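Marked as duplicate of an earlier ticket. Keeping the data here for the record.
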Amino acid sequence: MVSISIETAEQIEARLVEVISEAELVVHDGSWTFEESVDPPVLTPETLAVVRDEDVWSSLVPAPAPPDEAGDGASGAAGAERFGLFSFHFPHAADNSGFVGWLASHLKQELGTGVFVVCGSNTSRGGIFDYWGCPDTLLADAVAVVERLRSRGAQG
């Protein structure tokens, strides 16, 4: 839900700590990557998101195993970034406006990393949901930051 309100920094922090503590959090297995194509991609159950610009379609899909894990030397595109993912489903009518910038700032401050966020809506599960991507090597650390914020809301 997008809300318009004027709040102090302290009020925003308190509201969003409550929102994160009430959201359903899922940490997704494996590593993920973006695949690019000039043609619309074929959607599969593994395709998490698709977006495009003027030149390419970009699909967020499970990353192939690195050569040492695949056992056959197979790998994805050379140099493709690998991301860890976690997601939130927010309760119906939760005022989560400002959430993306707020949590992204916490993660940047505490871990030094940027993130990407893909948002959608599923009204049967409350409404807005977010998928968050960070370097796969930092997923455990990012989830630890999220859990610390969630515990602050649970204590409140």
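See parent ticket for discussion. The CA atoms of residues 98 and 111 lie 20 Å apart.
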